[in-house]
Amino acid sequence: MLILEDFLNLIIMKFITIKNITALFLFVLISISCSPPEIPKCEILIKNGVIYDGSGNKSYNGIVALKSDKIVYVGPSKQFDADSIIDVNGMAIAPGFVNMLSWGYNSLLSDGRSLSDLIQGVTLEVFGEGSSPGPRGSKSDDSYISFKDAMEKLEKNGVSTNIASYLGAASVRIQVMGYKNQKANSDELEKMGKIVDEAMQDGAIGIGSSLIYAPGDYADTEELIALCKVAAKYDGRYISHMRNEDSEIIAALDEFMKIAKDANIPSEIYHLKASRKPNWYLLDSVINRVEKARAQGHKITADMYTYRASSTGLTGVIPTWVQEGGHRAWINRMKKPEVRERLFKDIRKELDQQSPEGILMVGFNKASMSRKYLGKTVAEAAKMRNQSPEEAIVDMIIEDDNRIQCIYFSMSEENIRKKIQIPWVSFCSDAGSYSDISKKFRTHPRAFGSFARVIGKYSRDEGLISLEEAVRRLSGFPAENLGILNRGLLKKGYFADIVIFDPQKVQDHATFDEPLQYATGVVHVFVNGEQVIKNGSHLGVFPGRFIKGSGAKKILRDQFQN
């Protein structure tokens, strides 16, 4: 009996004999087309999931295949030769989420697991609100660390999420001018520009400002435009905690818009809000002005956290003029009788809009202060001390030798729902990233629930946005705003930052009284193709990378072209 190979050889010889080359060619094509296709290979196959690709497009049933740190296939189910198969049984598969404002740098240096964010699906932490990991310190005493070295230090130390950062405008100013409250001259602006130039080449996303804190608010509009113009040369971005978020928010927005337009730079508003009840109505005007600018072609976006309370130091009600010169000068100045009278008057103006009953103290420097006042409002502490609220604020800061971290109940739940539905708003925590909740400390619940609330409370439970839109605003949209390539979407060739969750079970649990509670519902998380969360548990791996901005990529691109 002839085997298949002998039979084919016989037929081919017959065709050659009759010199029917055309027939031979057709025969070969038919033979090839009838051959079984080669099965593609991958290392990890995630199957039986519902794909939310981060674009906002309608979800569908499908699979995702990974090889090394990349996605090699995403789409309808097909056969793969996989080293490992994960059957997710109908759960959602989405790109990793982006935390547009993280204060996690120092906490991640201590513990790189990033559990409070990672367990919500966050795979990228973005730093840089006003201050950044670098540059800081003095070259003269060897305490200096550059922007690049600071970011690489965290990467080398080991971190489970990716990290990126804006260059803090205040960090730049401190390097050149210290804590002086004065206008920068041309020589100082030139020095600042060189710092920006270096950091942009080293991977900064752009310039981040925070204009309600000293010394950031000592910078005028012209200084910020000058820094942003340097960043814009490297396709950088501008992001800002505007100079005011309450009664003067419209003037602050006008300054923000001027910086964006004059520097010709894509710009984002940090944690969009209208604070303090008399000003809640102003949010509509802010939204309308931004949408008008966007309609005119200006790239203006915003981010938010999903709570009605903010968190900062008691500096939130203390004027920055008293803080000139840095921490020690500030503390000493507040002890002077001639300063205190003016200071008390300015603080009373703030407390007229922000009630001391709505300021909850959650972070102290000294254990003795913490034992007395942790979890107390300013109003309660003032009564305990038999002082006015403004006197208690100043004296407690002096006694604690610290800004005293607080939670400010100052926003409207109605406004939060309004912002959730705005398509040009992404999300942040504006908090550290914590992994050891056995340590007793207080923080804002947004550190543990800001992203879970988007999917659970506001998409699933309240139906304000679809799950497709929620995922877009958590992943593809912020990645685009950051100018980061090949991340933020489930797409072939993109880096495999992936979150797998049960949409019906995603839930935040942290409260203002009990904030140290992890969210639930996220089952698996991958960072750069490596699984870091499996069945809700951390695997002890740290594949996070320093994700560089457009400037570093532009330098490499220009070098390649030359």
Summarize this structure briefly.
This protein has 562 residues and is of the alpha/beta class.
Q: Based on CA inertia axes, which overall geometry fits? A: globular
Oligomerization status of the protein chains:
single chain
Mean pLDDT: 93
Helix % is 25-40%
Distance between the termini: 65 Å
Question: Which structural category fits the helices and strands?
Answer: alpha/beta
Question: What share of the residues does DSSP label as strand, in percent?
Answer: 15-25%
Instruction: Report the biggest beta sheet as strand number plus sense, adding barrel if it closes.
Output: 9 strands, mixed
Radius of gyration, in Å, reads: 28 Å
Count helical runs. Answer: 21
How many beta strands in the DSSP annotation?
21
Outline the low-pLDDT stretches: 1-5
Structure description:
- The protein is α/β, with parallel strands linked by helices.
- Helix content is 38%, strand content 19%.
- It contains 21 helices and 21 strands.
- Strands 1, 2, 3, 4, 5, 18, 19, 20 and 21 form a 9-stranded mixed sheet that branches.
- Helix 8 (221-232) packs parallel to helix 9 (249-263), helix 12 crosses helix 15 and helix 14 packs across helix 15.
- It is globular, with a radius of gyration of 28 Å.
- The model is unreliable at 1-5 (pLDDT under 50).
Question: Can you lay out the helices and strands and say which pair or pack?
Answer:
Elements: H1 4-17, H2 21-34, E1 41-51, E2 60-67, E3 70-75, E4 81-87, E5 92-95, E6 97-99, H3 105-110, H4 115-118, E7 122-127, H5 147-157, E8 162-165, E9 167-168, H6 169-177, H7 186-201, E10 206-210, H8 221-232, E11 237-241, H9 249-263, E12 267-269, H10 283-295, E13 300-304, E14 309-313, H11 327-333, H12 337-353, E15 359-363, H13 367-373, H14 378-385, H15 389-400, E16 405-409, H16 413-420, E17 425-427, H17 446-449, H18 452-461, H19 467-474, H20 476-482, E18 498-501, E19 522-527, E20 530-534, E21 537-538, H21 550-561
Parallel strand pairs: 1-4, 1-5, 6-7, 7-8, 9-10, 10-11, 11-12, 12-13, 13-17
Antiparallel strand pairs: 1-2, 2-3, 5-18, 14-16, 15-16, 18-19, 19-20, 20-21
Helix pairs in contact: 6-7, 7-8, 8-9, 12-15, 14-15
